[in-house]
């Protein structure tokens, strides 16, 4: 509350410095918030496209799997899947977007040539190969979707945090500081008026005392003149 602030010049200067600093911080955070929102919208568009591709890839892979099971039998399909020796490997790095650290996922050994899938060329079929191709493509889409959606979540969290900070400055801290500033300025003006009034009273009293002293001195001189002996 403003009443809790001691109305001194020193406190007024300190509050003015805090207001200036808070306004600069507010402007910086607003710019960061707007930049984050723009980056988020770009990532959101990208995520929507990736999600659509992921749905299509999943549907395609499922159809290929159903066809392979129908034509080659479930045992052959399971045998080809079990023959896989090298599984996909993931490595994660990070990149900075407007101060937000988001993951960057690198995948290896996802797509393989036919002779490296483990089940061999003999005993395989075009339908099983097509199913393997479709699922490798699906895995790529899943990894990309995971990277983008994780970035979205981190960006959204940072946007909300920045919004709260902007609102705290705009609707709480700055109004309180300006209220304190106004309170101190009013008190200092009151003190200045009181001081001027006090000085005027002192001056008027001094002038009255001087006038009274001059009147006393004048009466004394007049009395001394009238009491002096006349010449014969």
Give the gist of this structure.
Residues 44-71 form a coiled coil. The chain has 232 residues and is mainly α.
Account of the protein in words:
- Residues 223-232 have a biased composition (Polar residues).
- Residues 44-71 form a coiled coil.
- Keywords: ATP synthesis, Cell membrane, Coiled coil, Hydrogen ion transport, Ion transport, Membrane, Transport.
- It comes from Halolamina salifodinae.
- This is A-type ATP synthase subunit D.
- This protein is mainly alpha-helical and 232 residues long.
- Helix content is 75%, strand content 8%.
- It is built from 3 helices and 2 strands.
- It has helices at 9-72, 74-82, 126-227, and strands at 89-97, 100-108.
- A two-stranded antiparallel sheet has the order 1-2.
- A hairpin with a 2-residue loop joins strand 1 (89-97) and strand 2.
- Helix 1 crosses helix 2 and helix 1 runs antiparallel to helix 3 (126-227).
- It is rod-shaped.
- The chain starts with 8 loop residues before the first helix and ends in a 5-residue tail after the last helix.
- The model has no long low-confidence stretch (mean pLDDT 87).
């Amino acid at each position: 509350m403003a009443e809790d602030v001691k109305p001194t010049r020193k406190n007024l200067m300190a509050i003015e410095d805090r207001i200036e600093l808070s306004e600069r911080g507010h402007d910086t955070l607003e710019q960061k918030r707007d930049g984050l929102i723009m980056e988020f919208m770009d990532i959101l568009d990208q995520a929507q496209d990736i999600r659509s591709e992921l749905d299509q890839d999943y549907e395609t892979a499922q159809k290929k799997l159903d066809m392979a099971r129908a034509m080659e039998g479930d045992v052959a399909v399971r045998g080809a899947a079990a023959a896989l020796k090298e599984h996909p490997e993931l490595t994660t790095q990070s990149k900075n977007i407007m101060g937000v650290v988001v993951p960057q996922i690198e995948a290896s050994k996802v797509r393989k040539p036919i002779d490296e899938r483990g089940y061999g060329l003999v005993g395989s079929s075009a339908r099983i190969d097509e199913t393997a191709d479709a699922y490798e493509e699906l895995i790529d889409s899943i990894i990309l979707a995971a990277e983008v959606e994780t970035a979205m979540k981190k960006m959204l969290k940072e946007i909300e945090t920045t919004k709260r900070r902007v609102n705290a400055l705009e609707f709480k801290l700055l109004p309180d500081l300006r209220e304190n500033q106004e309170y101190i300025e009013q008190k200092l003006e009151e003190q200045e008026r009181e001081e001027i009034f006090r000085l005027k009273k002192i001056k008027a009293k001094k002038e009255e005392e001087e006038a009274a002293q001059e009147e006393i001195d004048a009466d004394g001189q007049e009395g001394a003149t009238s009491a002096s002996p006349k010449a014969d």
